[in-house]
Amino acid sequence: MKRAVILLSGGLDSTTTLYYALNKGYTCQALIFDYGQRHKRELRSAVAVAKLTKVPYQILKIKFPWKGSSLLDKKMPIPKSRFPVSPFTRLSNIPSTYVPARNTIFLSFALSFAEAIGAQAIFIGANALDYSGYPDCRPDYYAAYQKVIEKGTKAKKIKIVTPLIDLTKAEIIKLGRKLGAPLEMTWSCYQGGSKPCGVCDSCRLRAKGFSLYNKAS
Amino acid sequence: MKRAVILLSGGLDSTTTLYYALNKGYTCQALIFDYGQRHKRELRSAVAVAKLTKVPYQILKIKFPWKGSSLLDKKMPIPKSRFPVSPFTRLSNIPSTYVPARNTIFLSFALSFAEAIGAQAIFIGANALDYSGYPDCRPDYYAAYQKVIEKGTKAKKIKIVTPLIDLTKAEIIKLGRKLGAPLEMTWSCYQGGSKPCGVCDSCRLRAKGFSLYNKAS
């Protein structure tokens, strides 16, 4: 049996990634993080997706007492409209929504979990094309992390799998649709509101993806 | 001002490391982890050392729901007397006290904290000589982790400093004494008792260190 731990945020990318892993024959266990994010709404989506797929999940509560990000600190504004809509968005500056070492923390828990249950893989829906410019979403970061696993664990051979890393948002949507992922259940907006704000990076990247996907199909 | 985050367990090694960092002129902030360790007693030592040095500290509570280690799971026995007393102890097998990805998780939080407060360094008292054989205590693990920082953070240049990595336990004690570290306040035993058990790896390595230090001085 192939086992995997999957980092599930409740967004479009991680949901598609979960369907990808299931489609590849992995028996998955999901980790969901309640880390003080202002868009706590995403947790509801994550749980709904896990329940729909009957994938066992755990919600880990994590505290970032030092904040240092507009995704954690409600006194800081979420940036709006940082990029024009084009097929590819490569942002070179790192926005205030970057949470210091967040993916490194998430991966570390996933790694611990994977090692404890004897999983062979960790799936994460990171994407370095239509993304917010976070350094911990890029391929060379995951290559470096792979070395940490090799050097720092007993299991050594657990693989980090990033199936979306070089896809555009429209391509991710296409893949999700093909795999039957419930994209309408997912949540992307960074703001804490009950409806997507439509102007944060995450909303705009999502909207752009759907717009280009719809044009192409 | 040179700032550092220090991982403080309340043991001999991390206490000596804190004194080393302070001696090097770093303004330190300590992170202490309450992670369900059976030797929770060490937390008291960590807090006492932080208070003595007037280093600000935070206790982070972390859950390992999957356990997978005799340090977390009280139903598993702590191994006893695994090695003969000699000047150098290099254990090749990894004991059940190994906690999957523990140092990776600790470092990730330290990294997040360091990045958020603009610290230049993370100090950790890892030691790969008189140690329990954990892979996440070895130099090549820290070299790999350094790459993760470079690739995955905005700050990029935060250095992991491991001043004890190639010292024997007797040499660590010598360094601690020289720096005025309150070694008598530290706690090493893996068991959850109110007194050190004297037979776990950690007790035996500590006792061996003091014995060889006393002989040499």
UniProtKB/TrEMBL annotation, chains A, B:
Swiss-Prot/TrEMBL GO biological process terms:
tRNA queuosine(34) biosynthetic process
Stretches assigned to coiled coil: none
Species of provenance: candidate division WOR-1 bacterium RIFOXYC12_FULL_54_18
Looking up NCBIfam families in the UniProt record yields: 7-cyano-7-deazaguanine synthase QueC
> Which keywords label this protein?
ATP-binding, Ligase, Metal-binding, Nucleotide-binding, Queuosine biosynthesis, Zinc
**Protein name as annotated:** 7-cyano-7-deazaguanine synthase
Identify which cofactors the protein needs according to its UniProt entry.
Zn(2+)
User: Can the keyword Lipid metabolism be found in this entry's annotation?
Assistant: no
